[in-house]
């Protein structure tokens, strides 16, 4: 794993002595890394990033504090490692949706592109529920300290959402609302629903959410099936009554 400055996210010692692939040293390194990540994730979700110290993490993992620095340079690098699989899933899904919308010429093609993206989000939720919850809990906080990595991912998700909305607008598939408004509104709705699922709020079967959310959002944003006169009114043209 590589951090923003081009160095690997693991600690220096772990890089120098990774061990033979499949060997005892590598196995021990992977197990110890997972112990630290699992302990940290549990504490982060329970208390929030700011309230958890490296001492807390090592105590929960049952290791010495020095062991932490063999695998992670600091708390921010650990958070980055936790986010990595979810980041990959989300961004690949958003990029695929953008490519599909660039080719979409009709409402059904647009719906399929958004459904595919919703399925990717649902997959990430099912595979990494605690990581997704950590992201949702921390993404609105100040982009400082260990939260920088969460904020960076949040900005990337928002940027892709706006770009996707802009592409749908290109083919006249959505109402003429600014992409920065409708795209971010959709992100907010999706994230709130995901947090409701993870908080075990009573919102029905989570597996039905992707289709329900896609239909709800796109029925509100897409251009209605109307004649030319109705479309002119929607676009702000035509005579006032």
Shape: elongated
Quote the CATH topology of the largest domain. Tetracycline Repressor, domain 2
Instruction: Say which CATH homologous superfamily of the largest domain is assigned.
Output: Tetracycline Repressor, domain 2
Distance between the terminal alpha carbons, to the nearest Å? 62 Å
Q: Please, how many helices?
A: 11
CATH class of the largest domain reads Mainly Alpha
**Approximate helicity band:** 55-70%
* H/E topology pattern: HHHHHHHHHHH
Largest sheet: none
Number of DSSP strand runs: 0
Structural class determined from secondary elements: mainly alpha
Taking pLDDT < 50 over at least 5 consecutive residues as the criterion, the unreliable ranges are: 1-16, 226-241
Instruction: State mean pLDDT (0 to 100 scale).
Output: 76
> Proportion of β residues?
under 5%
Could you say what the CATH architecture of the largest domain is?
A: Orthogonal Bundle
Structurally, the number of domains stands at: 2
- Calculate Rg over CA atoms: 22 Å
């Amino acid at each position: 794993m590589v951090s923003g400055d081009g160095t690997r996210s693991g600690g220096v010692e772990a890089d120098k002595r990774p061990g033979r692939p499949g060997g005892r040293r590598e196995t021990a390194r992977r197990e110890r890394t997972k112990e630290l990540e699992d302990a940290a994730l549990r504490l982060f979700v329970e208390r929030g990033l700011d309230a958890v110290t490296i001492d807390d993490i090592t105590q929960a993992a049952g290791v010495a504090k020095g062991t932490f620095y063999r695998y992670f340079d600091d708390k921010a690098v650990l958070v980055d490692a936790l986010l990595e699989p979810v980041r990959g899933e989300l961004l690949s899904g958003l990029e695929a949706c953008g490519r599909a919308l660039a080719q979409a010429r009709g409402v059904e093609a647009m719906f399929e592109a958004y459904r595919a993206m919703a399925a990717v989000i649902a997959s990430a939720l099912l595979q990494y529920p605690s990581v997704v919850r950590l992201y949702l809990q921390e993404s609105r906080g100040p982009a400082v300290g260990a939260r920088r990595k969460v904020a960076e991912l949040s900005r990337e998700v928002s940027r892709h959402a706006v770009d996707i909305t802009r592409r749908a607008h290109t083919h006249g598939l959505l109402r003429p609302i600014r992409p920065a408004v409708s795209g971010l509104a959709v992100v907010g709705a999706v994230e709130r629903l995901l947090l409701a699922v993870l908080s075990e709020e009573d919102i029905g079967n989570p597996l039905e959410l992707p289709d329900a959310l896609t239909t709800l959002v796109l029925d509100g944003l897409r251009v209605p099936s109307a004649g030319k006169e109705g479309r002119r009114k929607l676009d702000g043209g035509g005579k006032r009554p």
